[in-house]
Sequence to fold (295 residues):
Amino acid sequence: MLMPKNYYEALGVDRDATPEQIKKAYRKLARKYHPDVSKENDAEAKMQEINVAYDTLSHTEKKAEYDHQLDHPQGQHQHYSQDQQGFSGFEDLFGRFGAGFGGARHQTHAYKGEDQHASIEVPIQVAYQGSTQHITLQIPTYNAYGEPEVQRKTLEIKIPKGLKAGQQIRLTKQGQAGINGGENGDLYIEVHYQNTADVTVEDTDVFLTTNISPWEAVLGRTIQVQTPAGLLQINLPKNAKTGQKLRLKDKGIPAKTAGQLYLILNIVLPDVQNQQDQHAFEQLAQHFKHFNPRG
Fold:
């Protein structure tokens, strides 16, 4: 008895393909050759072929026996012949796709659509206040004929206050469409916060660069700083240095466990615009004439 067509070739996968890869390949081909939507002349025959292949490769024991027969082509092959009672049966296989193989007399089987993933960037203020935003996503997917395409979706997304960087929002049934009336997959939106020249975000911690004057740095003044957590009064330590970090406890992203807000100090010199300004710096230089910043 002749060996049927190679099932791995029928699904377009390698022998070491994972169960998930086999399922994905099957779903893609099913969308392409489903007789209710396919324009291919041999759609019904191709659908039969991939159903038989998937029925074997998706079951551990059947796949193991089939692999053994591929490795020993001189052995017995009748287990996979179409008239063998050990096979799960074309009635069950064809019933998965309903009208395409005999109409209503077969029981259809619905398949859930694939989950999809996307990411967005939003301002850091969203982490502190929450937001409802309308976004348009371009998501790679497959159409009903199994052809790759880019799907545009405009969605309203509610981003809750306290969402940490990289956390996902699940939008139920906004993923890829199901097969045979199966429910849609889900869409997962990964939220990131926009880094700027002054603000960076790591998990729930926020790092804010703050400019201070030389006298504020030396004298340890109290200053006001506009932060994502609002306008805050900051007591600078005396002799503060550029790059020094001040930790403001629980002023980071207000998650269940609040993050920290770190002020990174940056000393900025005033411009010398006239003789009086220059004279002031000359007096300063004379006063600190023994100071060598290069050690």
User: Anything to note?
Assistant: The radius of gyration is 33 Å. The chain has a mean pLDDT of 82. DSSP finds eight helices and eleven strands in the chain.
